[in-house]
């Protein structure tokens, strides 16, 4: 099949021609690149054109694509049978490895990040006997009904859904506050603290590009909900095992933590973890129902184990060093081009915003010049560099990226910036 024949067949089969919206390239324009295979830092389209990949599967591919240890672990698991609907050895091994690295007392594995956040909220509501949830504008926690919500006009109003099909009765239980705004959080808790079950937040927001958390905001997040008897849920689905072996360390006081992406080694996964008493509320020990035919599937657990095994402290040092090289190269290219753009990096995750200064919240992120980003994306892919197809998705560097790939990406970016800027 050619790239075009794949796209044409998919257009009829799948809404928007894709099975997850951002893959459609709607926000950058042009034809989405269908990926047939990947190897290390590279992906190949159906016509064997090679790209240096900074999409990284939107987070999981921290070892690069088709890492031999991960491939071997999945093959072995497959050869031993895949669907038993029973407890097995691999889930115990992976959970022990995660517990050792994170300090989470107990865990439950699920099949996606969406399931993890949905379950964390159900636990929080059961634990507190309260219904209201607070999230932050621009933070993404998957697509469950109660989390697809954006702010009403005032900060202390309850939400309206971003999506059709979500009942107002559900969306109305979620409040959306501006990120990095401790005063807004204080006003909320003054008014509705006694009804609030939990505050959920990405430890480092990375679904609107990256927002750097202010220390004062992090402090308020970790003290205020607790003072009002509400829980703090740290969504570490991107940041868990991305920045260091274990959690990001940004919200050490979180009561519940959600994980996903990297811990599945490229296969579908989620996990909710935290205090033993809170996890003990889950069925069959407690009254909170949650289940899954495929939960802790042996192939997923095998891929996760092989991935975590490769993620040594030295691996994170190397990731940081390679990603810093990319950051420095991009900064220099931005400066030389005189581009109104900024680079934000935490470890091996990076954003290039078409906005002169890095944004502090979603309102500022939205000021980015998305048309310039779209031109930049096209110019990069013409040069064999694949970055996420949206200004608001984060670039990921993997352990398979070496200096030649970074240098090639920086050279391409220097040219692409000039093409992207209005003459
Ligand atoms: C990806 C992501 C999710 C959702 O995970 P899925 O596996 O796509 O359901 C939730 N929270 C954050 C922070 C994410 O990045």
UniProtKB/TrEMBL annotation:
Modification type N6-(pyridoxal phosphate)lysine: residues: 261
Pathway note: Porphyrin-containing compound metabolism; protoporphyrin-IX biosynthesis; 5-aminolevulinate from L-glutamyl-tRNA(Glu): step 2/2
Top enzyme category: isomerase
Needed cofactors: pyridoxal 5'-phosphate
Keywords, comma-separated and alphabetical: Cytoplasm, Isomerase, Porphyrin biosynthesis, Pyridoxal phosphate
Top-level taxonomic group: Bacteria
Catalytic reaction list: (S)-4-amino-5-oxopentanoate = 5-aminolevulinate
Subunit field text: Homodimer.
Record protein name field: Glutamate-1-semialdehyde 2,1-aminomutase
């Amino acid at each position: 099949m050619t790239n075009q024949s794949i796209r044409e067949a998919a257009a009829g089969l799948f809404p928007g021609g894709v099975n997850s919206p951002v893959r459609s390239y709607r926000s950058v324009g042009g034809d989405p690149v269908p990926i047939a295979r990947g190897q290390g830092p590279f992906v190949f389209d159906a016509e064997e054109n090679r790209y240096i990949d900074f999409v990284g599967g939107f987070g999981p591919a921290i070892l690069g694509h088709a890492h031999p240890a991960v491939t071997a672990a999945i093959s072995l698991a497959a050869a031993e049978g895949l669907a038993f609907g029973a407890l097995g050895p691999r889930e115990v091994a992976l959970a022990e490895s995660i517990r050792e690295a994170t300090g989470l007392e107990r865990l439950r594995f699920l099949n996606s990040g969406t399931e993890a956040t949905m379950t964390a909220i159900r636990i929080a509501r059961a634990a507190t006997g309260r219904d209201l949830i607070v999230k932050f504008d621009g933070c993404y926690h998957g697509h469950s009904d109660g989390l697809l919500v954006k702010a009403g006009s005032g900060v202390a109003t309850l939400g309206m859904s971003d999506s059709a099909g979500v009942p107002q009765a559900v969306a109305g239980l979620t409040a959306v506050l501006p990120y990095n705004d401790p005063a807004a959080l204080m006003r909320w808790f003054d008014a509705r603290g006694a009804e609030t079950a939990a505050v959920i937040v990405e430890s480092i927001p990375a679904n609107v590009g990256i927002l750097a958390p202010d220390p004062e905001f992090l402090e308020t997040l970790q003290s205020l909900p607790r003072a009002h008897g509400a829980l703090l849920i740290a969504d570490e689905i991107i940041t868990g095992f991305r920045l260091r072996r274990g959690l990001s360390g940004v919200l050490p006081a979180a009561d519940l933590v959600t994980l996903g992406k990297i811990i599945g080694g490229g296969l579908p996964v989620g996990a909710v973890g935290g205090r033993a008493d809170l996890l003990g509320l889950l069925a069959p020990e407690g009254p909170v129902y949650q289940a899954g035919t495929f939960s802790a599937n042996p192939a997923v657990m095998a891929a996760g184990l092989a991935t975590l095994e490769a993620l040594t402290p030295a691996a994170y040092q190397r990731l940081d060093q390679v990603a810093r090289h990319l950051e420095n190269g991009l900064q220099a290219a931005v400066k030389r081009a005189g581009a109104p753009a900024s680079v934000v990096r935490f470890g091996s995750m990076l954003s290039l915003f078409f906005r002169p200064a890095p944004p502090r919240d979603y309102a500022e992120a939205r000021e980015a010049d998305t048309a310039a980003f779209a031109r930049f994306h096209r110019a990069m892919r013409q040069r064999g560099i694949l970055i996420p197809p949206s200004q608001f998705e984060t670039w990921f560097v993997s352990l398979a990226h070496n200096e030649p790939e970074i240098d090639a990406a920086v050279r391409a970016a220097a040219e692409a910036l000039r093409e992207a800027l209005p003459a």
